[in-house]
């Protein structure tokens, strides 16, 4: 193989690696990544989250994912209190949905939402944001209504 041919293959391979590094971030242009804390009687629990604000991001959420890390969540910032209704269509993994008011106070929890279900899920109280985490997380950290989520989107 001639040296120029070898270099060309490495350039293509390098471009492919660069594409792989960026691919997981595709579609997240309207989101922010940060760390929030869920405060329960068992302590403060940090989670790496993507904050969703745009309508397409709010609609897609965690659909089509096969797994998520134990310390990962998706925070849906609806930017005003309303009665939020969610579903699990095209969501392959069970999720805990944590509903919060504008201060970050937990106002409702739906634990282990059934994957692939089109059943409408709501807690029936005004909600400003919803945090989705891996199913079983709420029980694992002892989360209860009245506990607090700390993040920059919430007013103190």
Write out key terms for the chains shown:
156 residues, alpha+beta, Jelly Rolls, 7-stranded mixed sheet, 3 helices, globular, disordered N terminus
Q: What this model shows, in words?
A:
The protein has helices spanning 3-22, 55-60, 137-141, and strands at residues 32-40, 43-52, 72-82, 95-100, 106-113, 127-134, 148-150. 20% of the residues lie in helices and 35% in strands. The protein has 156 residues and is α+β, with helices and mostly antiparallel strands. A hairpin with a 2-residue loop joins strand 1 and strand 2 (43-52).
Number of strands: 7
CATH architecture: Sandwich
The Rg value, from CA coordinates, equals 19 Å
Say what the CATH topology is: Jelly Rolls
The percent of residues in helical segments reads: 10-25%
Task: Give the N-to-C terminal Cα separation.
Answer: 65 Å
Low-confidence stretches: 1-30
Query: Number of DSSP helices?
Result: 3
Sheet with the most strands: spatial strand order: 5-4-6-3-2-1-7
Shape: globular
**Into how many domains do the coordinates divide?**
1
What is the CATH superfamily classification? Answer: Protein of unknown function DUF192
| Assembly state | single chain
CATH class: Mainly Beta
Could you describe the largest sheet, including whether it forms a barrel?
Answer: 7 strands, mixed
Give the class from helix and strand content and strand pairing.
Answer: alpha+beta
Mean pLDDT: 83
The share of residues in extended strands comes to: 35-45%
* H/E element sequence: HEEHEEEEHE
